[in-house]
Amino acid sequence: MKKVLTGNQAVSWGVMRARAQVIAAYPITPQTTIIEELASLVSDGKLDAHFIKVESEHSALAACIGAQQAGARTFTATSAQGLALMHELIHWAALARLPIVMADVNRAMAPGWTIWTDQNDSLSQRDTGWLQFYCESNQEVTDSVLQAYRIGEQISLPVMIVLDAFFLSHTAEAVDIPEPAEADAYLPPWKSDLIVDVDNPRAFSGMTGVDVYQEFRYLQHEAMLEGIKVAATADKEFGEIFGRSYGLIEPYRCEDAEAILVTSGTITSTSRDVIDAYRDRGEAVGLLKIRMFRPFPIDLVREALRGVPNVGIIDRNICPGFGGIFAQEIKASLYDMEAQFRPNLYGFIAGLGGRDVTPKTIEGILEKTLHPEKTDHHLNWVDLKV
Amino acid sequence: MLTELRFHSRGGQGGVVAGKLLAVACFLEGKDVQTFPTFGVERRGAPVMTFVRISDHKIRLRNQVYEPDHIVILDPSLIAHFDVTQGLKEGGIILVNTEKDVAEFNFPDTFRPFAINATHIAVVNKLGSLAQPIVNTAIIGALAKITGLASLDSVVEAVKETVPIKIEANAQAAIDAYNAIPDAALI
Question: What is the ipTM of this complex?
Answer without folding.
Answer: 0.95
